[in-house]
Amino acid sequence: MNAEFERKLDQLKRVANDLVAPGKGILAADESTGTIKKRLDSVGVESTEETRRRYREILFTTPGAEEFVSGVILFDETLRQSSREGTPFPELLKSKGIIPGIKVDAGAKPLAGHPDEKVTEGLDGLRDRLAEYAELGAQFAKWRAVISIDTDKGHPSDWCLDANAHALARYAALCQEAGIVPIVEPEVLMDGSNSIEVCEDVTSRTLNRVFNALFEHGVVMEGILLKPNMVIAGKQAERQADPREVAEATVRCLRRHVPAAVPGIVFLSGGQSDELATEHLNIMNQLGPHPWELSFSYGRALQAPALKTWAGDESKAEAAQQAYYHRARCNGAARSGDWSE
Ligand code: 13P
């Protein structure tokens, strides 16, 4: 191994471990322009560059959140925005000891030849974009693959899983080359009517292919984080599994597929209620010790109460920060299985 690569590897390992430091997790605030518009619409706020900036500023300037938040994932626009005082967001976060990250995929697009299945795009030009993001202060990145379950149609197909695993592995290898920690996110969606057993099977097939592809592409396991879904029944399913069942199935599935060299697993919340997302993480950590840290990289489950409280009303900005702080503290406690309402 040459000295330059060794230095890069040390940095990757350090950042990956810092992101899953005890009691801390990641805030996903990387909604694309389309997704943040949906979120702002839901509370009656028009999505403009300024409302998007102000909403993110409220979250990022929350006093004390850094005790529970190790890193924040930003969207391209947000990475280039600044606080009211003119401090660029990456700098503002760093001054609080929070690591800035960046979403680098270009979204899930229809997979040609496979109706109703998707593949995530964004590999073209990624090497150059990563170099620019590193200049702007990003130390880790995220790429999300979207897998939907439809048992009647035989989805996900093996081909869809392979196409997404291949893209995730190429992204991860490019990130490591640039000295940026890749968060590898294969999300099996929870919006179908499938049982928890089907979700476990699909999550297994997905992770199996993702780790094979990562290995084949020479990705160093010590320098990545995995961001998976939990193993859970689809939202429309008749029988919803109880929280302990979800926690046990998720841990079983991860133990079968995720190498022990991976420093941490940071879950997405995927549409679970904020409290359930905390409860699931809490139980999983009570089931430990595990070979990896089990943490959070929540979007909606960290932000929903804050967004609702703020709803564009400046007089509510502080109350919104308190709501975000509360969720961050609850999830921080769930990191060690010590959460209670
Ligand atoms: P949710 O926690 O809202 O699923 O968002 C996490 C995320 O980053 C999805 O890509």
Automatic annotation (TrEMBL):
GO terms for biological process: glycolytic process. One of its GO terms (molecular function) is fructose-bisphosphate aldolase activity. It is an enzyme of class 4 (lyase). It catalyses: beta-D-fructose 1,6-bisphosphate = D-glyceraldehyde 3-phosphate + dihydroxyacetone phosphate. Its EC number is 4.1.2.13. The keyword Lyase applies. Keywords: Glycolysis, Lyase. It comes from the Bacteria. InterPro entries: Aldolase_I_AS, Aldolase_TIM, FBA_I. Pfam families: Glycolytic (PF00274). The keyword Secreted does not apply. Transmembrane segments: none annotated. Pathway: Carbohydrate degradation; glycolysis; D-glyceraldehyde 3-phosphate and glycerone phosphate from D-glucose: step 4/4. Belongs to the class I fructose-bisphosphate aldolase family. This is Fructose-bisphosphate aldolase.
